[in-house]
What we know:
The protein is mainly alpha-helical. Helix content is 72%, strand content 0%. The chain is built from five helices and no strands. The longest helix has 16 residues, at 65-80.
Amino acid sequence: MLANALNRERALTPRESELVAALVARSVNPRPLRRWTMAQDTQLRDLINLGLTAGEIGVHIGRTTDAIHTRIKRLKERAKGV
């Protein structure tokens, strides 16, 4: 990993190591994971009830289609008590 390579050149401070890790994570996944809020869950349910597609819902909530599908699946599992 990048942090390990830089560490071989000189010892990184803990803060520098955190920054390198954050930069590497951001380059791999430019949009970091964000937790769903209760308001977003409510908005998701409302938009589903209106008949919007996952893509349309994603535009309203600011999430990807995959994130919408994953959240719907998790909410269904939670409702079933899985």
